[in-house]
Design brief:
- InterPro entries: AAA+_ATPase, ABC_transporter-like_ATP-bd, ABC_transporter-like_CS, ABC_transpr_LolD-like, MacB-like_ATP-bd, P-loop_NTPase.
- Belongs to the ABC transporter superfamily. Macrolide exporter (TC 3.A.1.122) family.
- This is Putative ABC transport system ATP-binding protein.
- Helix 4 packs across helix 5.
- The protein is globular, with a radius of gyration of 17 Å.
- Helices cover about 30% and strands about 30% of the residues.
- The strands form two sheets. It has a six-stranded mixed sheet, sandwiched between helices.
- It is α/β, with parallel strands linked by helices.
- It is built from seven helices and ten strands.
- The two termini are about 20 Å apart.
- It binds adenosine-5'-triphosphate (ATP).
- Adenosine-5'-triphosphate binds next to helix 1.
Length: about 220
């Protein structure tokens, strides 16, 4: 199993109160799974994704990533794990405006040690080709369309060859046709064996995943 969440709980302070958002989430993912997470606004989908991405430590429960217990691990180790094994794709792309496509896609390698420059260059070029942006290598974000920006963000996610890709509304800012092209890319990544968790509000988008789970009342339900 690549991901094993057991009884994961989390809440936030609101004034004097602690408001529980996740109240015992269980989720098991095998390598190569493609799961869509749905749920009403405010049910905790982003919170769950942040926990899966090791950006947030859950208040309770356990998280095993590829059999490794993450609870109690120092921040330094979590950061290393995150950069090596997990990639994020967001609705807002989060590209750096002064860098070109190649430089944006190469960003994750700033935090990774042990790869030669030629290996990094090969992985960056390969990821850019895979998302179909071979002709846009020297363009900056302001010179690209919304769909192209999301392709750059996906190439940046793919380049380090992560085990787990986490996507938060990756088609939320795109028109239906461009969103469809981006979903085709997710499909292709999944066919290549990447494990994907994708949060979406759109049932049609969710139908592209192999499995659908819904967050309701703090826990996950199949379907
Ligand atoms: N850092 C925070 N501090 C306090 N409350 C928070 C924080 N982050 C999220 N919340 C609250 O926790 C609840 C769940 O938020 P979360 O963003 O995980 O939900 P969501 O399902 O992703 O929502 P949406 O679909 O609207 O993006 C919300 O009520 C939100 O206001």
């Amino acid at each position: 199993m690549i991901v094993e969440l057991r009884g994961v709980c989390h809440g936030y302070r609101r004034g004097a109160d602690l408001v529980e958002v996740l109240g015992g989430v269980d989720l098991c993912l095998d390598p190569g799974d493609f799961v869509a997470v749905m749920g009403a606004s405010g049910t905790g989908k982003s919170t769950l994704l942040h926990i899966l991405g090791c950006l947030l430590r859950p208040a309770g429960g356990s998280y095993l990533l590829d059999g490794e217990q993450l609870q109690g691990r120092p921040e330094r180790e979590l950061a290393a794990l995150r950069s090596r094994r997990i990639a994020h794709v967001f609705q807002m792309f989060y590209l750096l405006p002064h860098l070109d496509v190649v430089q944006n896609v190469a960003l994750p390698f700033l935090y990774q040690e042990g790869l030669s420059r030629s290996e990094v260059r090969y992985r960056v070029d390969d990821a850019i080709d895979r998302v179909g942006l071979g002709q846009r290598r020297k363009h900056r974000p302001a010179e690209l369309s919304g769909g192209e920006l999301q392709r750059v963000a996906i190439a940046r996610a793919l380049a380090p060859r992560p085990d787990l890709i986490l996507a938060d509304e990756p088609t939320g800012n795109l028109d239906a046709r461009t969103g469809g092209d981006i979903l085709d890319l997710f499909q292709a990544m999944n066919d290549d064996g990447h494990t994907i968790v994708m949060v979406t509000h759109d049932r049609h988008v969710a139908s592209r995943a192999g499995r659908l789970v819904t967050l309701r009342d703090g826990t996950l339900h199949d379907g």
